[in-house]
């Protein structure tokens, strides 16, 4: 198993990419801290893992609070003696709004989850990994690199994740900590459920994928698991696309 004897924290592990990755981490032998704000969905992920014979502990975590993120890391260390993998995945989408109409409150909320949540995870995990090394993986987006209308806060937050990933990789390399990011394209998760209910919109979005279809959370989880494993030991400070070529596709 690729992650045998490893200890991982996965934020936003109650659904979508986070849940799929937590399940795959556990299947590959890792002990997983299911760090999730929603108690019901977090416990569901925990149960899905333990009922399959894996090891998981739910820790209610609001990634907009550094203390909460630090607590999830502390639980990992207290229960298992170390932290090997941190997947800063928790994120939020945005209601399409022009920059001229977006409220300061809505902008701040997106930045708090998508940007500060990743910073808090890097800081807390990095300090826990200083002695023995480890791997930090952050969820960015293809929208860190390509533009769309009415999503300035999402673009800003995911662009920040890319820059933080590269900067943190420089800071943490001396501790043998690798820092990478993933950039998903259209993945069928809760964030895009509303689009699914609008056939014309969904068809337009799917046309932006080279093979005209959405990806599934486990498509991303496979990449994250690879990056977390020793198979990716020479990969550092990069953003890895998982988008079926959408970011390269000429619209």
From TrEMBL:
<keyword id="KW-0560">Oxidoreductase</keyword>
<dbReference type="InterPro" id="IPR002347">
    <property type="entry name" value="SDR_fam"/>
</dbReference>
<keyword id="KW-0753">Steroid metabolism</keyword>
<dbReference type="Pfam" id="PF13561">
    <property type="entry name" value="adh_short_C2"/>
</dbReference>
<keyword id="KW-0520">NAD</keyword>
<comment type="similarity">
    <text>Belongs to the short-chain dehydrogenases/reductases (SDR) family.</text>
</comment>
<protein>
    <submittedName>
        <fullName>NAD(P)-dependent dehydrogenase (Short-subunit alcohol dehydrogenase family)</fullName>
    </submittedName>
</protein>
<keyword id="KW-0443">Lipid metabolism</keyword>
<dbReference type="InterPro" id="IPR036291">
    <property type="entry name" value="NAD(P)-bd_dom_sf"/>
</dbReference>
């Amino acid at each position: 198993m690729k992650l045998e004897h490893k200890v991982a924290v996965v934020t936003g592990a109650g659904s979508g990419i986070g849940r799929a990755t937590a399940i795959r981490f556990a299947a590959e032998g890792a002990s997983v801290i299911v760090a999730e704000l929603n108690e019901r969905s977090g416990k569901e992920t925990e149960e899905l893992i333990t009922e399959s014979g894996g090891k998981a502990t739910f820790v209610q975590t609001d990634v907009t609070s550094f203390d909460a993120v630090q607590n999830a890391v502390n639980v990992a260390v207290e229960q298992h003696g170390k932290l090997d993998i941190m997947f800063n995945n928790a994120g939020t989408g945005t209601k399409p709004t022009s920059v001229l109409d977006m409220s300061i409150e809505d902008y701040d909320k997106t930045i708090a989850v998508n940007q500060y949540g990743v910073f808090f995870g890097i800081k807390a995990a990095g300090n826990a990994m200083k002695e023995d090394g480890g791997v930090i993986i952050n969820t960015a987006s293809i929208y860190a690199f390509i533009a769309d209308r009415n999503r300035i806060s999402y673009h800003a937050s995911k662009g920040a994740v890319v820059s933080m990933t590269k900067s943190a990789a420089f800071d943490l390399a001396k501790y043998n900590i690798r820092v990478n990011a993933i950039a998903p394209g259209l993945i069928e998760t809760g964030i895009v459920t509303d689009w699914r209910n609008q056939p014309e919109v969904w068809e337009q979005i799917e046309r932006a994928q080279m093979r005209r279809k959405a990806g599934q959370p486990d498509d991303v989880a496979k990449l994250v698991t690879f990056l977390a494993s020793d198979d990716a030991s020479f990969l550092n400070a990069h953003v890895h696309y998982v988008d079926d070529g959408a970011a390269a596709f000429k619209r």
